[in-house]
Design a protein that fits this description.
This protein is α/β, with parallel strands linked by helices. Helices cover about 40% and strands about 15% of the residues.
Length: about 350
């Protein structure tokens, strides 16, 4: 007997949750249409630019839906050039394991963890984003075994810097039917990210949720550059022209399908100085205008944004729509940035 592990309760399997909280056929059709648009961008059939944009973590339903409704109005104005994929990140990786782990763990950030309520809350939030705002959204696959709870509602999946080298993340990505972005690891080794993309694009037989499964490979598995941290803990960016062109050359030698990269404008690329995201976004766009090769692989940006600038502590949580994890751009700056991006595309 393992006295260090308490089995609290058996949770419903994804199939049961989906049966109890299904999506309407009209929403499923709308999602398929959006997935086709994304596939066209990642395969080069469309030159639209992707913005994966939203809060660092989805901490509360009301402000998240408020934020996404604002994105809806902007999307309608820039739809000829930009495809917006809102971030609804319901899992939060923690370097030491301490702290708020996201809505999946704590649907109420000030209450005790409740995984059942968390599963229901994150599915409800993703469905409401589709129903109310017409978006199928992005989420991070922090736990590969939990992906199936949202597999019919997601539009995009990110694999984080701490997870890219993990075998189960790579194999699960190979069986996902939406674009999957593999971030470069925190130490910056690009070969780790490229190996993850190779694994994600290949077919595999592996163990998943108690089943022997076989994946077909995901041809839309691609890179995310998010900067890195050196041995002394100093942040280094990898969004500059030289970084992007080197990645283009690396892709050329790799034989991988659909060479693509999303540039993360925050994290180690900004040194978590959230206001730098505006400058970084514009520099990436300048690199795209300067080099057709760079533009051929840069499919979009990942931006951390919410209703209010900055961040606040969970214990305070007094400002509506302000991040309780990493600091984010506020709405006014975000809206202006999206229009500026559209103007130069």
């Amino acid at each position: 007997m393992n006295n260090n592990l308490e089995f609290k309760r058996k949770l419903p399997i994804p199939k049961e949750i989906k049966a109890e909280f299904p999506i309407a056929p009209a929403l499923a059709k709308k999602r398929e249409e959006q997935l086709l648009q994304m596939a066209d961008i990642f395969t080069g059939r469309s030159d639209k630019f992707i913005l994966i944009i939203g809060p660092c973590s989805a901490d509360s339903e009301a402000p998240v839906l408020d934020y996404i409704s604002r994105l809806r109005a902007v999307q309608d104005k820039v739809s000829d050039k930009i495809m917006i994929i809102p971030r609804i990140y319901t899992n939060k990786p923690r370097t030491t394991g301490e702290g708020y782990k996201g809505m999946l763990h704590q649907p109420n950030p000030n209450a005790a963890p409740d995984m059942l309520r968390g599963i229901l809350a994150i599915r409800s939030l993703h469905i409401k984003a589709m129903e109310q705002c017409g978006f199928c959204c992005a989420d991070e696959m922090l736990y590969p075994e939990n992906y199936r709870y949202l597999s019919d509602v997601l539009g995009y999946v990110a694999v984080g810097a701490r997870s890219t080298e993990n075998q189960q993340h790579r194999l699960t990505a190979s069986g996902i039917d939406v674009p999957v972005g593999m971030k470069n690891p925190t130490g910056g080794d690009i070969s780790v990210m490229m190996n993850a993309i190779k694994a994600g694009q290949s077919s595999h037989t592996f163990l998943y949720r108690g089943w022997e499964v076989e994946s077909k490979g995901n041809p839309l598995c691609h890179a995310i550059l998010r900067g890195y941290v050196d041995a002394q803990g100093k942040s280094h960016p990898n969004y500059h022209f030289e970084d992007l062109y080197d990645l283009y050359l690396t892709y050329e030698k790799s034989g991988l399908k659909n060479p693509a990269v999303i540039v993360d404008t925050n994290h180690a690329n900004s040194g978590k100085k959230y206001l730098e995201q505006i400058r970084i976004a514009k520099e990436v766009l300048h690199s795209c205008r300067y080099s057709p090769e760079v533009r051929s692989i840069v499919k979009g940006l990942m931006i951390e944004s919410y209703i209010e600038d900055g961040t606040q502590k969970i214990s305070d949580c007094e400002v509506y729509g302000r991040s309780i994890t990493d600091p984010c751009l506020g709405w006014e700056k975000t809206e202006r940035l999206i229009y500026d991006i559209a103007d130069v595309l």
